[in-house]
Predict the 3D structure of the following.
Amino acid sequence: MLLSSSLKFSHELLGRALGPGDRALDATAGNGKDTLFLAQQVGPEGKVVSIDIQQEAVEKTQKLLQEEKVRDRVEVIQGDHGYLDDLTRGPFQAIAFNLGYLPGSNHEIVTDPETTIKAIRKALEMLAPGGIITVVAYHGHPEGKAELATLEKFLPTLNQEKVAVLQYRFINQANNPPILFALAAQEADDCPDL
């Protein structure tokens, strides 16, 4: 069901933006599930770049991709998403961010609000016209709450003529369900001036 989670809805949006042969970016690989989804969407002729700062995440992502037989269409890079433009080049039809900490790992290693905003700015510059960025924010921990507050302050400042921003959240569920932000590049122009 579409309303079951923010993560599932992010995949719905990413899937609508992608087709066979397209290019996609997972800016926060984590356990590799978003990377796998993107790789399945772009097919054998497509390309996915997957980035994570933690070696453990890189290894988990590579293992999952190998098991699912899609490793050949993904470039996995260990690096800081705040330096996307040093790690890869666009354009990408879809870009995914899954913020917070690596599930099943050290919860003290989390995404940083300032670095995340820097990464989103760079991702917007790499986004193809008509492309989409999804940002799933987990705010059930103190660092996540701070990152969410930073996103809620920054995202409304984006030029609406260049990018449309959607916020998707559940307001009647316990335990701080994640919040999805979707940033869609307007088709007539790319986003270099953001």
About this structure: The chain has one domain: 2-185. The helical segments are 6-17, 33-42, 55-67, 84-87, 113-126, 142-154. The beta strands are 23-26, 47-52, 74-78, 92-98, 127-137, 163-168, 179-185. The chain has six helices and seven strands.
